[in-house]
Automatic annotation (TrEMBL):
Keyword Flavoprotein: no
Gene name in the database record: Bid
Broad class of the protein's primary localization: cytoplasm
Keyword Membrane on entry: yes
Subcellular location: Cytoplasm; Mitochondrion outer membrane
UniProt keyword annotations, A-Z: Apoptosis, Cytoplasm, Membrane, Mitochondrion, Mitochondrion outer membrane
Organism: Falcunculus frontatus (Eastern shriketit)
Lineage: superkingdom: Eukaryota
Cellular component aspect of the GO annotation: cytosol; mitochondrial outer membrane
Protein name stated in the entry: BH3-interacting domain death agonist
Example of a GO biological process term: positive regulation of release of cytochrome c from mitochondria
Pfam families per the UniProt record, alphabetical: BID
Length: 141
């Protein structure tokens, strides 16, 4: 029921005359996001323009289904995983790569924002949902 505001803050809802926020630990989420962003900055330099341009072509192809584009994104992430240091947790690297690819595609063709965001979200839900839940849970403890 929460809304995400453009500045990244959650909006509150009035309950019985008082402003109420969802029972999430926003500090935990901010810390995890900062850690992922730091890793993403490192990966950003490693991703070549041709990889991004290839993904852009797939996203621009209206004949491809959401599932086909998600599969292609998954293949690209797996290929990029080969260049990731082996000491990094595989799921974390996959998560960051998907987010960095999303950023690079949208920076290249901003009109693809909606389609790319939905595809990335679909990819993360299919491939990394349990990892994300475990990561947040472990950090709270």
């Amino acid at each position: 029921d929460d809304e995400l505001q453009t500045d990244g803050n959650r909006s509150g809802h009035f309950r019985n005359g008082e402003l109420g926020l969802a029972p999430t630990n926003e500090d935990v989420i901010r810390i995890i996001a900062a850690q992922l962003a730091e890793i993403g900055d490192q990966f950003d330099k490693e991703i070549q323009g041709r990889v991004v341009n290839d993904l852009v072509r797939h996203f621009l192809n209206e004949n491809l289904s959401k599932e086909e584009i998600t599969l292609h994104m998954s293949r690209v992430v797996r290929e990029l995983m080969r260049s990731i240091p082996s000491d990094m947790e595989q799921e974390r690297a996959m998560l960051v790569l998907a987010m960095v690819l999303t950023k690079k595609i949208v920076n290249t063709v901003p009109s693809l924002l909606h389609r790319v965001f939905n595809t990335t979200l679909n990819y993360m839900n299919q491939q990394l949902h349990n990892y994300i839940v475990e990561m947040v849970s472990a950090f709270k403890q």
